Amino acid sequence: MRELVLQIVAGILGLWLAVEFVPEVEFVGDIKYLLIAGLILGLLNFFIRPILNFITLPLRLLTLGLFGLIINVLIIWTVDLIFYELAIPLITPLLWTTLIIWGLGFIVSILFPKPKQSLLKPS
């Protein structure tokens, strides 16, 4: 549950940062649509990305992990297609948006690491 919330927060903040700092990424509409788009992005990253990572494991091994970037681009592109308020027109802004969201997810994973579970129960 904790990881899901962190993915959603990273998706919302990542989209907001991309709209603010990537020149061709635009968002028109209420802030609630940006929050919903970030929510959908976080849900896709939490539920769909692990499945795609497993299915494309041979490609990721052959490309030394670079195919993971393609998976992330496709997920963000899907969010762009779902929400007409979000406009990411070309591949370059899409790549920058992907890198921003990936970097933010990386920072969140460092700041909030998964709690370690012990195999032995405390007595």
TrEMBL record:
Pfam families cross-referenced by the UniProt entry: Phage_holin_4_2 (PF04020)
Sequence intervals crossing the membrane: 31-52, 64-84, 90-112
KW Isomerase (keyword) present: no
UniProtKB keywords: Membrane, Transmembrane, Transmembrane helix
Family matches, as InterPro entries: Phage_holin_4_2
Domain of life: Bacteria
PANTHER family the record matches: SLR0284 PROTEIN
Protein name per the record: Phage holin family protein
Naturally occurring in which organism (per UniProt): Candidatus Nealsonbacteria bacterium RBG_13_36_15
